[in-house]
Amino acid sequence: MHAAGRHTGQRRALVELWNHVMMRYRRHRDGSLQPLARPNVDTGMGLERLLMILQGKRSVFECDVFEPWMSALRDLWPTSEQSLRLLSDHLRASIVVIGDGVRPSNTGRGYVLRRLIRRALTTMWREDPARTLADLPAGLVEKHAAAFRPGRPLSARTSLSARMSLSGRTSLSGRFRGCS
Description:
globular
């Protein structure tokens, strides 16, 4: 891990900027592991962490990729900074995944999407059960979905699917209502 420090009073705060992941095994569908012929190290920084450094921000949530979400959600649903950050992160990630053609389900990528949406809904409803993802500005959802589909135009169907999946107008919406 490589970290950058910033003095905050008497303590030095560290922020992880880069990480290393040891790739040693291939996991098969049955869960068994097979050693790789060539173990390797995957390194990563992440788009948001890179932007944080380049834009001189103290948090990824201050960067221009999160600003439209933070601003729109702050105006839409007055809530704590922690909830705003969670909602911005989870809703933004959900739009990217939906744009990739993933739909909520009980397995694989669909399960990850379902958990992202569920956590966002739980956070929203904790403060106000009347809140709904249908309140999200359509322009924000469409613009974000288009930004993460380079070289592929955003079809009306994809945009509608993203808004419907996030608005609770899917068959899964009833299941999400019971979450706490």
